[in-house]
Amino acid sequence: MTRTSRMLSLYRGCRVPVLTHTAGPGPTGVIAGNMHGDETTGLATCLRLDTQLPSILRRGKVVLYPSLNPDGLRAMTRYFSDGVDLNRCFPGDDSGSISSQAAHHIWTDMMGQQPAAVLDLHADSADAAPYALVDRGVRLGPDRQPLEDAALGLAQATGLLVLWEDPDAEYIRYGMEHSLSGAMLNHRIPAITIEAGPRRMVAHGAVSTVIRAVGEVLASFDMMDPMSTTRWQGPRLRRCAAPTAQSAGVFVPDFAPGAFFDAGEQIGSVLGTSGAVLDRIFAPMAGCVISWAECGWISGRTAVGTLGLEEN
Ligand SMILES: [Zn+2]
Fold first, then answer.
1. How far is the CA of 55 from the centre of ligand 1 (A)?
2. Which end of the chain has a smaller Cβ tally under 10 Å, C or N?
């Protein structure tokens, strides 16, 4: 077992650590954290894996990129140094903007690892169910199904709730094919995003959840021993914004993140401070609560959270 540590230059004046653990021949797993500066679960997960891998990695190589956005980390902001969402910039451009250059150098370094899998670690809201997110192979043509199946396999191996990204048209419109996992998938590298919140702080439970999820993915490549987490067996769910509240008020959810509801069921309500019901929020179709809005008081015309809705 060997461990090496080096610095990768993203643009002039910004270098990030790359920690590599090698346990002989075998597949390579790439694990990235803190792409969004205020999402620190992945960073803490990478650092804990850095101490644990020497005793648990049995074969192959794991390459950790603990923080892809150190300026955003210090400023506690989602965005990169130039105010852009780095996770919409891949594969990047060496002669482009600061974020585009950074994406290019991250991309080139990761591709040079010839990864069997790429796991990009993010954090959802303060009150969210942890999940694995599967991208859409919108640029893959006939290779689409095998690559999407491979990504789904990674997501199922995590043992977390599995969600699919938006349908193709919205997926392209929102630039998701330029997220790290979306660009990897569309360049034929199996990749997923893992979301476990809260943002801004390192929550012990969230880090433990993601360590277990990553460990199960590595175990699915026989790189370490499995922890016997059960696989996600539920319906095929798509990540969607929850319905919009029509009135400002206190949003009170009827379900905890991770709970399932039926089509048409009330999932929460908007109340005034004297108890008046200003709006009721109903499920558009059957599904599961992913996360709720992070503020108790919501303004009108605001989505009250994120849902996983059943997809046929
Ligand atoms: Zn994120």
1. 29
2. C
C-alpha closest to that of 257 among 195, 193, 174: 195
DSSP string, 151-194: HHHHHHHTTSEEEE---HHHHHHTTGGGSHHHHHHHTT--EEEE
**What is the sign of the dihedral through the CA atoms of 215, 217, 218 and 221?**
positive
Query: Facing residues of 237 across strands?
Result: 163, 310
pTM above 0.90, yes or no: yes
C-alpha 25 to ligand 1 mean position (Å): 32
Cα 13 to ligand 1 centroid, rounded to whole Å: 23
Angle subtended by helix axes 204-220 and 41-56, to nearest 10: 50
Residues whose beta carbons lie less than 5 angstroms from ion ligand 1: 36, 39, 122
Residues across the chain: 312
* Mean pLDDT within 121-136: 94
How many angstroms does the Cα of residue 125 sit away from the middle of ligand 1?
Answer: 10
Query: Phi/psi zone of residue 15: left (φ > 0), alpha (ψ -120 to 50 degrees), beta?
Result: beta
Fold classification of 237-310 (topology level): OB fold (Dihydrolipoamide Acetyltransferase, E2P) (2.40.50)
Asked if 220 and 153 touch (Cβ cutoff 8 Å), the reply is yes
- Does 301 score more than 90 pLDDT? no
Q: Are 234 and 311 in contact (CB under 8 A)?
A: no
- Are 136 and 182 in contact by the 8 Å Cβ rule? The answer is yes
> How far is C-alpha 194 from the chain's CA centre?
3
What digits encode the pLDDT tens for the residues 242-261? 999 999 999 999 999 999 99
**Taking 80 as the threshold, does the pLDDT of residue 48 lie above it?**
yes
For the domain bounded by 2-220, which CATH number is listed? 3.40.630.10
Average pLDDT, the chain: 95
Backbone φ and ψ for 300, nearest 5 degrees, come out as -60, 155
Q: Identify the bridge partners of residue 9 per DSSP, sorted by sequence position.
A: 15
Report which residue type is found at 74: R
**The residue type at 3:** R
Position 56 scores a pLDDT of: 94
